[in-house]
Design goal:
Radius of gyration: 17 Å
Order of helices and strands: EEEEEHEEEH
Largest sheet: 4 strands, antiparallel
Distance between the termini: 28 Å
Strand content: over 45%
Helix content: 10-25%
Number of strands: 8
Strand order of the largest sheet: 5-2-1-6
Shape: globular
Structural class: mainly beta
Length: 127
C-alpha cells in the first residue's frame, strides 16, 4: 500500500500548471553497503493528477494498493538539500499499481482531464 502524504503544484514545459500527489511507500529494510547493518526506510514519489488543489488536499491520508519502486533512467544530477552534496543517479522512484509490472507503470506525457473527472470534482466540492 502507498499513502497520499501531500500534493505539489508543478509546471509543464509550456508554462501551465498541474497538481501532483506525493505518495509514500511501505516500510523497507535495507542493508548498508558500508557497515552491513540494516536500517528502515520508506520511498516516496509523485504522480500527476487531474485534481485541483482542494481535491488533492482532501486525498491526503488516503491509501492506495501498490508500491513505490525503483525504475532505471538516464543519469542525472541530484543535490542533497541537507548536505549540499551532488550525486549522479540513474534511477527514479515510481508508483507501481498492485499486480502491475514496471513496464506497465511507465507514464509519459501529461494527464488528460476527462468529463468524468470534472463531474466527480464538482460532486466532491459541492458536498
Amino acid at each position: 500500500m502507498v499513502t497520499v502524504i501531500d500534493y505539489a503544484e508543478r509546471q509543464r514545459k509550456d508554462g501551465t500548471t498541474f497538481v501532483a500527489l506525493i505518495l509514500l511507500g511501505g516500510l523497507s529494510l535495507v542493508q548498508s553497503q558500508n557497515t552491513g547493518n540494516f536500517y528502515a526506510t520508506v520511498k516516496q514519489c509523485s504522480i500527476p493528477s487531474t485534481f485541483d488543489e482542494e481535491t488533492a488536499k482532501g486525498r491526503i491520508g488516503e491509501r492506495v494498493p501498490g508500491n513505490v519502486v525503483k525504475k532505471p533512467c538516464d543519469p542525472y544530477e541530484w543535490t542533497n538539500k541537507e548536505s549540499g552534496k551532488v550525486l549522479e543517479l540513474s534511477h527514479r522512484w515510481v508508483y507501481l499499481p498492485e499486480g502491475a509490472t514496471l513496464e506497465e507503470a511507465i507514464f509519459e506525457g501529461d494527464p488528460e482531464v476527462t468529463l468524468a473527472d470534472k463531474k466527480l470534482r464538482t460532486l466532491v466540492l459541492n458536498k
